[in-house]
Amino acid sequence: MAERMRYKEVFYNRMGRSGLKVSEIGLGTWKFGYPERGDGSRSDERESLRILDAAMDLGVTFWDTANRYNNMSGNSERIIGTWLRANPDQRRNVIIATKGRGQMDGVTPNHEGLSRLNLVESVKKSLERLQTDSIDLYQWHGPDPETPIEESLRTMDDLISQGLVRYIGVSNHSVSQVQALLDLSDRRFLERIVSVQNRYNVLDGESHPGVVAFCEKNGLGFIPYSPLAQGMLSSRYAEGATPQVGDRLVDEGVLERRRSDRALRIVRALGEVGRQHDRTEAQVALACLLKHPSIPTVIPTARTVQQLRENAGASGLVPSDEEFAKINEAVKQT
Questions:
Q1: Of 42, 46, 154, 209, which one's alpha carbon is 20 to 30 angstroms from that of 217?
Q2: Is residue 25 part of a domain?
Q3: 172 within some domain
Q4: 303 within some domain
């Protein structure tokens, strides 16, 4: 068996059948921004830059963002751009993944969707905010029923030819929608998507059922967002814990709904497995996702450097089949 790829503290996997290698623990950056300006972010510029420094030190080099994060401000991309400007020698070591689709950078009907006009403009504006020459993985943030998918795919094909984008992916797509994209790419000899990013975690399951298995069958990488179920799959919300103001579920007023008997049972099972490996509930939850062959990376957010370090500590943990079955048993109980 070939030795696993590793950089610093984190293992790496191929994104589907593509040649792109990504850190199996990535970094979701939707919390990055300027909360003092009211953009809805949770980590200010100073803390966000510290997290990015720590991510680079750990080898967490797959950074996921989107143009509309934090109330359509673009500030998550701007924070990353500030870091890249201060660390130009590290650009080649980081994989930048961003998204576009929803209305942004304008107010007319042409400033949303997956039309050629909006995709080209969105990519250019994201490049400006990111202060870089190319986007490693550009993802459609959702489908656009009003634009022919051939127009959208041909536009991405052109952007790749121009060197502005290196790989393409989609987010919030169903099996049938992804299948249609693959079929058209093959018929028209257009660039194929390499990834699908949908919500997925051991508590809630898939937001679009069957996509994880479809990605495995078709050589695509599946990128789960919200892999810790808004933080529910961590010790912060375990039985006996007292969540505080500042925790996401408390601040959003959804703790009581999310902290169900089933959720607590799953967290308890994660903790029991974690104690066998000296790992936390959150680390086991991430490792369970990475056990799937089609999942090369997970992108938990981090509000602090400590959270980032905990997430990175999940790299290399592989629950046994028996441990995986134990967690699945808790998941299946109603």
A1: 154
A2: yes
A3: yes
A4: yes
Alpha carbon 113 to its chain centroid, in Å, reads 21
Beta-strand pair 5-7/195-201: unpaired
pLDDT reading at 7 higher than 90: yes
Instruction: Find tokens 């990376």 and name the residue.
Output: 297
Is 44 part of a structural domain of the chain?
A: yes
Q: CA gyration radius for the chain? A: 19
Contact, 69 vs 30, CB < 8 A?
yes
Task: Just list the catalytic residues.
Answer: 69
Structure tokens at 280: 């936390």
Look at the block and give the residue holding tokens 């998507």: 193
Under 8 Å CB-to-CB from 188, ≥6 apart: which residues?
150, 153, 154
- Structural domain boundaries, residue 83: 5-231+292-319
pLDDT band at residue 247 under the 50/70/90 scheme: confident
| Token code pair at residue 142 | 């959702």
**CA–CA dist 243, 236 (Å, integer):** 6
Q: Tell me the CATH number at 225.
A: 3.20.20.100
pLDDT tens track for 79-110:
999 999 999 999 999 999 999 999 999 999 99
